[in-house]
């Protein structure tokens, strides 16, 4: 490590330790490893977050840290449909993601894990202040969804009422 600084999510005493997702991808979605890497769009990831039993078992004010390289889109606000937006919307929790390259570092001597910011392409240390907090929404977004959601075969809407 070149240096360290307090994580922005650690600034609030009394909060539980954050829930951490570690993945490859970017603000638009994730890439699952394997012989044939599979893309997981941000919206689909949001649906998986909605069903994550381990996250659901945490206190309601537990924040989420997405250790995903460039997991937060550039700009002052995460765009609708981005990874942190879908995560916050589907978990009803605040999310932290960075515009920079990041990874999780494990120190075997102490057993601790640290979120590490990686140097830029020019080799310069990562700038501070690249973490963005996406607040949990107050409700569903207004307007139609960007793409339709399939109706389950066993739902009342799918059955005929002849």
Keywords for this structure?
alpha/beta; single chain; 162 residues
Description:
By secondary structure, the protein is α/β, with parallel strands linked by helices. Helix 1 (42-50) runs parallel beside helix 3 (83-91). The strands form three sheets. Strands 1-5-6-9 form a four-stranded mixed β-sheet, covered by helices on one side. Strands 2-3-4 form a three-stranded antiparallel β-sheet. The protein has a two-stranded antiparallel ribbon with strand order 7-8. The longest helix has 9 residues, at 42-50. A hairpin with a 2-residue loop joins strand 2 and strand 3 (29-32). It has helices spanning 42-50, 53-56, 83-91; strands at 19-22, 24-26, 29-32, 38-41, 64-67, 95-98, 102-107, 112-117, 131-134.
Give a short synopsis of this structure:
The protein has 162 residues and is α/β, with parallel strands linked by helices. Helices cover 14% and strands 24% of the residues. The protein has one domain (10-158).
């Amino acid at each position: 490590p070149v240096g360290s600084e307090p994580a922005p999510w650690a600034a609030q005493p009394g909060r539980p330790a954050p829930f951490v997702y570690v993945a490859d991808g970017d603000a638009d979605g994730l890439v699952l490893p394997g012989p044939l890497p599979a893309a997981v769009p941000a919206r689909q990831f949001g649906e998986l977050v909605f069903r994550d039993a381990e996250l659901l078992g945490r206190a309601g004010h537990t924040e989420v840290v997405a250790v995903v390289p460039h997991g937060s889109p550039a700009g002052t606000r995460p765009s609708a449909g981005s990874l942190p937006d879908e995560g916050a919307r589907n978990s009803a929790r605040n999310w932290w993601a960075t515009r920079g390259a990041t990874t999780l570092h494990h120190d075997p001597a102490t057993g601790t894990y640290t979120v590490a910011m990686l140097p830029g392409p020019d080799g310069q240390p990562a700038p501070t202040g690249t973490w963005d907090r996406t607040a949990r929404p107050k409700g569903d977004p207004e307007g139609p969804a960007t793409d339709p959601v399939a109706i389950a075969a066993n739902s009342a809407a799918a059955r005929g009422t002849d």
